[in-house]
Amino acid sequence: MQRPRRLRRTPALRALTREIRLSAEQFILPLFIHEGVGDQEIRTMPGVLRHDLPGLLARVQEAHDLGIGSIILFGIPDHKDPHGSEAYAGGGIVQKAITEIKARFPTLTVIADTCLCEYTDHGHCGPLIPDGAGGWTVDNDAALPLLAQTAVSQARAGADIVAPSAMMDGQVGAIRAALDAAGFSDVPVMAYAVKYASGYYGPFREAAGSTPSVGDRASYQMDPAGGYREALREARLDVAEGADYLMVKPALAYLDVMRVVKDEFELPMVAYNVSGEYAMLKTAALAGMLDEKRTVLETLIAFRRAGADAIMTYHALDAARWLREDAGK
User: How many beta carbons lie within 10 A of that of residue 44, not counting itself?
Assistant: First the structure.
């Protein structure tokens, strides 16, 4: 009789031959910064805050002390307009935050979300034009120079990585060319290569104030039922345009897609454990419906098992703390 249980008999035996390991260094902590005064609670994301600059720096210190090596910044400006001009303003809220963070934490990897939706007054990822049917659609080609300008301004402020999330055709190529022309050829592009039009983004949109005022994003974000061919095509295009990382978003509902993309390409894979996925687990845990630590760590292990090299997650602080506590036992 074969007895696999022999290898699972004690915690030490289980740890000895584990294939999947979690580390705080693999986490990317998403952070929101706004231009108001004080930190603000986000109703749909318990435990996550919109920070002012002092609050943001305090949270970054907490992450740094827990061994988290990377953060990604999302900005919420006071002023929004049809072209999202605060996204690429030299004195924009994210640009200011990047400069302050890098001055205090020079070894921390600061990633800038490169998009316009938090900055436009209509909540879309580029300028709008009539769609010919009485509605509106994003002008893809008009968005490209604005996204490129945003990436350059973020790199100039000190961003280590830019992460274009708009899902505009050609965005990675436009950003890569602009970074190179501006002298930032060493700044990598983390491509939101496989990003679905998902219901799991609801809490984020409330947090960032980026819910579209007209229409939706289904014409440029991917169809959840699109299958592997669409995912591989999108990733292949971003690789050809110069992407340095590939991301699958959301992660939890698309583990199979992540595995397929990871097996096809040699670039590092990032899983985005998005706001709705976080809110489901956090709300259930607060209601006493599940063991938060056990379930969160199991979920993060699933991302690693599916091929993620790094995990962007709102659970990062808690998970890093739990891993440190377990290591100290």
Answer: 17
Which of the four pLDDT bands, split at 50, 70 and 90, describes residue 54?
A: very high
**What does the mean pLDDT of the chain come to?**
95
Cβ contacts of 328 within 8 Å, gap of 6 or more: none
C-alpha span between 153 and 179 (Å, rounded): 9
- Of 80, 96, 102, 249, the active-site residue reads 249
Active-site residue among 96, 102, 195, 329? 195
Phi, psi of 122, rounded to the nearest 5 degrees: -110, -5
Give the model's pLDDT for residue 22. 96
Do 233 and 168 contact (CB within 8 A), yes or no?
Answer: no
How far from chain centre, in Å, is Cα 312? Answer: 5
Task: Render pLDDT for 158-176 as a digit per residue (tens, 0 to 9).
Answer: 999 999 999 999 999 999 9
Tell me whether residue 282 is one of the annotated catalytic residues. Answer: no
Cβ neighbors of 54 (< 8 A, separation 6 or more) are: none
* Nearest of 163, 168, 84, 167 to residue 127 by alpha carbon: 84
Taken in order of first residue, the domains within the chain and their CATH numbers are 23-327 (3.20.20.70)
B/e letters for 191-229, b = 16+ CB within 10 Å, e = fewer, are bbbbbbbbebbebbbebbbbebeebebeebbbebeeeee
d(Cα 159, Cα 189) in Å, to the nearest integer?
11
Q: Decide: residue 236, CB within 10 A, 0-12 exposed, 13-18 middle, 19+ buried.
A: middle
Residue with tokens 């929101």: 32
pLDDT of the residue at 329: 57
Tell me the per-residue pLDDT of 11-45, one tens digit each, with 9 for 90 and over. Answer: 999 989 999 999 999 999 999 999 989 999 999 99
Angle value at C-alpha 116, between 114 and 118, nearest 5 degrees: 105
